[in-house]
Amino acid sequence: MWAFHRVRGWIGISHRENGYLMTTDKQKIPLGDFIAFSPYQDRAVVSQKLTDDGPSIRSRVEIVSRKAHRWTLSQLADHGEVWWRSEELSAGTQPQDTNRITSDQLMKREVHSVAFGAGKSSLKAIASANGVFRTDDGKTWSEIAQFTGQNFPVSIHPDGIWYVGSYRSYDEGKTFENYIRWDKLAQQIQDSIHKMPRHLRITGIESMPHSKIRILVDTGVQKIKMQAHVLSQEWTLVK
Predict the structure, then answer these.
(1) Most buried of the four, 135, 149, 164, 207, by CB within 10 Å?
(2) What does residue 163 show for φ and ψ, rounded to 5 degrees?
(3) CB atoms within 10 A of CB 187
């Protein structure tokens, strides 16, 4: 049953012991401290109005589900605020490795880029958030040591190739190699826009059909998109 405490509001009650009520969390409270009672486990009275379209205070409601979800606010680069449903982890599933974090911990960071797994791979996603992390269960994330503290854009190609900044992996993150020859890319950009790049920085990666990859490049002069086959260094300007 439920009892309304004059200070604490509604409290779950397990049973009565003489002049006291025992709460569901094993507290013993004098009976005189309560001013209302409800014997129905699935009924309640609203004591706080959280949203404009929610039920009014003191409204009688029926509890359909006792499972509650907590939502976490994160910042996703080039998108803005994103709300994520937080998954509560039991003590036994909290990561003990210092190179692993929970989804809640990840979403409290500024998330620069996210890519989701596909196909038969056990991978759920990789994310860039002051380090690059991977998850196989959607609850805990392991940091890829090579990119500690980095905020590189990430992408997972349908061909199974992982892209992290200017690096790619054919073995699901075990090893990485550089897939860009910067001198050749710089020359191809200069030939395309007729301006010499001041610098080259990859700010976005898009996996394209037909085994192609597209990168967003900040040249210091302008931002452009270049595209190539995943096995080629022949980049062309995307207009």
Answers:
(1) 164
(2) -120, 130
(3) 14
